[in-house]
Amino acid sequence: MRQVVPPSAGAANSDGPYRELLDAFPAAVYTTDAEGRLTFFNKAAEELAGRTPQIGVDRWCISWKLYRADGSPLPHEECPMAQTLRQGRAVRNVQIIAERPDGGRVPLIPFPTPLHDPSGKLVGAVNMMVDVGALKRAEEHSTRAASDQAALYRFTDRLYRSSSISDVYEAALDAIVAALRCSRASILLFDEASVMRFVAARGLSPAYRRAVEGHSPWKQGDVDPSPVCISNIADTDQDDALKRVIAEEGIVSLAFVPVVANGFVIGKFMVYHDQPHVFADSELDMALTIARQLGFAIERERAHEYRRRAEFEMLTSQRHLRESEARYRAIVEGSEDAIISKDLNGVIVSWNKGAERLFGYSAEEAIGQSILLLIPPEYQSEEPTIIDRIKRDERIEHYETVRRRKDGSYVHISLTVSPIKNDDGVVVGASKIARNISERIKSEQHRTLLINELNHRVKNTLATVQSLAMQTLRNTERSEEARDLFEARLSALSRAHNLLTLENWDGANLLDVAERALTPFTAGEERRVTFEGPHVRLSPRQALALSIALHELATNAAKYGALSVEAGKVLVSWTVSGEELCLSWEESGGPSVAPPQHSGFGTRLIERNLSHELGGTARIDYSPSGVRATIRSALASAQT
Questions:
Q1: Which of 190, 279, 584, 627 is the most exposed place for a label (fewest CB within 10 A)?
Q2: Sheet with 184-190, side-by-side order of all strands
């Protein structure tokens, strides 16, 4: 391949033999003389700088201002180009940030190289600057995912340690503001009259709270509600008076997130933005996770409050004993939680409706039986410890364990145990409140699984993007399409990711993967690319690897092969033999093909990296009648 020699020092921006070529080059290129004075720049350099550089005036760099990677100012006389001219050698592996006059900043990797005349005298230097903003955005996405994970863990920990309902509200508001990146939030719950009331708020005026209190998209007790998002309140058909109140508070965008307990709506929390905001699916997933944890915590605190009230009423005075006992019975019988009492020998004395629903035994079946009836064999060592603590007049709070139902199934519960005393103050038994936390445990396990999966996918995606960037940039000095190549490879990776997301990352059909990978090359000419083969399910790893491979084959065909002429055709076919998948790429009707003199990125990716990713083999044959590629891999069902 011919190597382009940049304009020599002193050529300025004249119409030299290379001016048209370098102006069409997609990367920013400029040259200087030996003193660092600007002698040439192409159109891409002018666009990147956001200004028109001054030939013979600007020194070392075309950018208005420069910064180091850490954000500190970088004087032009210390930039990589200045170092190259002083040291007479190329400077590599340096990242800088260029600022345009309009304030925009662009992260760059410069490639300054010295120029010498035939006698070896330094006459100037040429510099190419590559925009690495896409890689930066991928890194920012990974950082955000880690931040969301940390906020969720902090929220869960604070809920576990909370000792009052106000602690729960404060922890929830902190989590909402941190994870959903808003400056204002609120929590509202239905009161006894089924009116939605503020119970906690962050950054809202009293006048605003009074004006909007009572508004709700759901009724108390609604089942399976969905969040309601408003990207811009001005664009809705809401009542004009309500819109005016919201606008006067400086709120432009807001979201209603339902808070659910025991399957029913008990309230909501609100997210506010002072600018138009489109709520992404990832934000809504995080909001619903916070809402679930908040619902569990509110119900737990309510149960504790009911119990405290019941205990208080039982101890007020003998005059109101019958009334207090009636209230206590109503609370116990009406509670969704299992409330059980036992004597110091572990024999069940009382059994409410909640216990019947949770454990499956009727009161007649349970009363008089040992409490060990409910405890699995592997957990029965807990009971002597609990009895010993009760005898010492100790109360046991938030004890999470496992119990067994009548049908033999296990259930996760949160257990609170309190001593029962006679009139002389002697401990004679214990009362237990057991709450079913199976859904919370399942939710936490699911959340942990999602977080771990998210971390894994982000790391794998970032590694793939970094590999594509380095492979592309490694050949930048020999390529006239570096930026387009990199963006096209990222687009191919993105299309594969979108397909896997639709399939919940359980895998994808081979036909869908192939069609999406070749979308940019088949628009309006579907008959030129044919797909043949049986239904085959790919693993996520196979889908990503084959998407990139097919994209590289199609890119080569569009430039040099069958897709570069109207008569050319491509057949993508696959067969299955036993547990092995064999995929073929066959070109016909195109220009005569000769093996390349140098192995390009696409060839290396397919014959080396792809075989490694798939655990199989990959081969490209440059037959004169057309390129043929054969890829072999174990089926997804056969991979471990």
A1: 584
A2: 196-202, 184-190, 264-273, 253-261, 228-230
Query: Residue 2 has what pLDDT?
Result: 30
0.90 surpassed by pTM = no
Per DSSP, 474 falls in state H
Listed residue (202, 220, 187, 196) closest to 294, CA to CA: 187
Instruction: Calculate the alpha carbon distances from 267 to 184, 202, 337, 487, 589 in Å.
Output: 18, 17, 20, 46, 67
Q: What's the token pair of residue 320?
A: 């109101």
Tens of pLDDT, residues 231-287: 999 998 888 888 899 999 999 999 999 999 888 899 999 999 999 999 888 888 889
pLDDT band at 637; cut points 50, 70, 90: low
SS3 592: coil
Task: Please give the average per-residue pLDDT across 302-311, as a whole number.
Answer: 71
DSSP H helix total and E strand total for the chain: 19, 24
Instruction: Determine which helix (DSSP H) or strand (DSSP E) holds 482, and give its type and residue range.
Output: helix 482-502
pLDDT in tens, 100-134: 999 888 898 899 999 999 998 999 999 988 887 75
What is the distance between the alpha carbons of residues 78 and 81, in angstroms, rounded to a whole number? 8
| Mean pLDDT for the stretch of residues 591-604 | 75
Q: What spatial distance separates the first Cα and last Cα of the chain, rounded to whole Å?
A: 44
HEC-encoded secondary structure of 407-471? CCCEEEEEEEEEEEECCCCCEEEEEEEEEECHHHHHHHHHHHHHHHHHHHHHHHHHHHHHHHHHH
Please report where in the chains the tokens 């200087």 appear, as a residue.
32
Residue 353: how many other CB atoms lie within 10 Å: 16
In 46-154, the DSSP E strands lie at 65-68, 96-99, 105-110, 113-116, 122-131
Is 268:258 a contact under the CB 8 Å cutoff?
Answer: yes
Q: At what angle do helices 438-474 and 133-161 cross, to 10 degrees?
A: 160
By the 10 Å C-beta count (0-12 exposed, 13-18 middle, 19+ buried), 124 is classed as buried
